[in-house]
DNA sequence: CCTTGTCCCGACCGATCGTTCGGTTACTCT
DNA sequence: AGAGTAACCGAACGATCGGTCGGGACAAGG
């Protein structure tokens, strides 16, 4: 009775379809007609499951943001030397980006046209600031180079990590999330140059 | 007679206004009504200068792509050790990104919904491949670490550089294009860790 | 059998989309 | 002054937008 198997849509399964289309065409470039074609149900049927287009967006970016913020509550992100906590957060960010790829992709592309989008942008900024403070602490410890501004370095590192959503595809053989996380950590902390 | 001063719009001046609005609201999220408000002329007047919305997009991404491809033709990008050519290209990319910021921003956000957008994506891929070959050559020379896949490293470095369009603003005091270029080169090649 | 509720549909709503058109200004050149 | 034209405008086009509405199909429970 509780979780009887249904072959119909739930708000969650519909969301996974919608997010894919949003990422393909862009949120503004996606019409409810596009969604209905992709989901295989009529346009009006969508409104039986969700309140509208913007609710789909809100659910998606919420899921992405929740996944990111959970990182900061984990033990390894809270205790220990700042530079090690930073490395842990970077690695976990890559893991969340890859495991929640379509949702994070959508989050990183919101422009701020609606109230929902502006709320998403604000929460993103909060997360960025939390990580920036971590890097600042690592710099104060002397574990991170001091010749690059903390704010600037944070943005560049975020840029590298967030670029995952532009090219990472989970089905690519020989390129697991773990391998990407290792590469990101190596490049972020060690750089491109050969260490002889 | 040749370049008599006019206080009216040309396709170029109109483009600079349009690109700003495109970047604010997203291309699909921008209506011709939005453009007319921002430009201070009526919607129909826009069509006196350009063929339509898509031509504005094509002009903008063309300008960005031309600026990027010109880098590869410059002397320092063609002669010398691969790792040094790579460093030059990275530095010049940052300069082009900052000097042509709104146009490159628009370029990096096209999704591929129209023929124009797909053409832009294809040219972008060409450019990426050219730089990837440079990094590959540097790896063959032994000047770049071999424990990270060339393709992966290229994408991550591009991600860091391209993220400029998400936060760099030319009016920010104390943060010139030169300073950003230096920081990018330092981080890309040397990494975040303190070199003692 | 009949009711109840879930799930879905076609038809339609007012609004807005990108674009077109006929016509009016306002400046340039002779 | 008159002709020519670049720049602009309001009104309207068909299409599509996000969303609504009344009702049909179908399974579960009585």
Notes on the protein architecture:
2 copies of one chain form a homodimer. By secondary structure, the first copy, chain A, is mostly helical. Chain A folds into 2 domains: 8-50, Homeodomain-like (Arc Repressor Mutant, subunit A), CATH 1.10.10.60; 61-190, Tetracycline Repressor, domain 2, CATH 1.10.357.10. Chain A is 68% helix and 0% strand. The first copy, chain A, contains 10 helices and no strands. Chain A has helices spanning 11-25, 32-39, 43-49, 53-73, 82-99, 101-107, 115-140, 150-162, 164-167, 177-190. In chain A, helix 5 runs antiparallel to helix 10. The N and C termini of chain A lie far apart (64 Å). Residues 1-5 of chain A have low confidence and may be disordered. The interface between A and B is large, with 45 and 45 residues. Chain A binds a DNA duplex (30 and 30 nucleotides) through residues 6, 8-9, 31-33, 41-45, 47-49, 52-54.
The general outline of chain A is elongated
Oligomer: homodimer
Task: Look up the CATH topology of the largest domain in chain A.
Answer: Tetracycline Repressor, domain 2
- SS class of chain A: mainly alpha
- Main pleated sheet of chain A: none
Estimate the strand proportion of chain A: under 5%
Helix content of chain A: 55-70%
- What is the CATH superfamily of the largest domain in chain A? Tetracycline Repressor, domain 2
Number of domains of chain A: 2
CATH class of the largest domain in chain A: Mainly Alpha
Q: Distance between the terminal alpha carbons of chain A, to the nearest Å?
A: 64 Å
The strand count of chain A comes to 0
Q: Can you name the CATH architecture of the largest domain in chain A?
A: Orthogonal Bundle
- Please give the most extensive interface between any two protein chains, plus how many residues each contributes: A-B, 45 and 45 residues
Q: What is the overall pLDDT average of chain A? A: 93
SS field, number of helical segments of chain A: 10
Q: Could you state the order of secondary-structure elements of chain A as H and E? A: HHHHHHHHHH
* Low-pLDDT residue spans of chain A: 1-5
Radius of gyration of chain A: 19 Å
């Amino acid at each position: 009775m509780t979780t009887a198997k249904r072959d119909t849509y739930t708000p969650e399964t519909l969301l996974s379809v919608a997010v894919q289309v949003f990422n393909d065409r862009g949120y503004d470039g996606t019409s409810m007609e596009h969604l209905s074609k992709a989901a295989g149900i009529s346009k009006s049927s969508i409104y039986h499951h969700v309140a509208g287009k913007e609710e789909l967006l809100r659910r998606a970016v919420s899921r992405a943001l929740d996944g990111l913020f959970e990182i900061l509550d984990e033990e390894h992100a809270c205790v220990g030397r700042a530079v090690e906590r930073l490395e842990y957060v970077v690695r976990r960010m890559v893991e969340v980006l890859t495991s929640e790829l379509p949702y994070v992709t959508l989050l990183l592309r919101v422009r701020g046209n609606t109230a929902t989008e502006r709320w998403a942008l604000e929460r993103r900024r909060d997360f960025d600031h939390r990580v920036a403070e971590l890097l600042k602490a690592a710099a104060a410890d002397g574990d991170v180079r001091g010749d690059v501004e903390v704010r600037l370095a944070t943005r560049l590192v975020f840029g590298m990590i967030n670029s995952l959503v532009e090219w990472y595809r989970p089905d690519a053989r020989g390129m697991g999330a773990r391998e990407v996380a290792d590469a990101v950590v190596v490049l972020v902390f060690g750089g491109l140059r050969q260490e002889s």
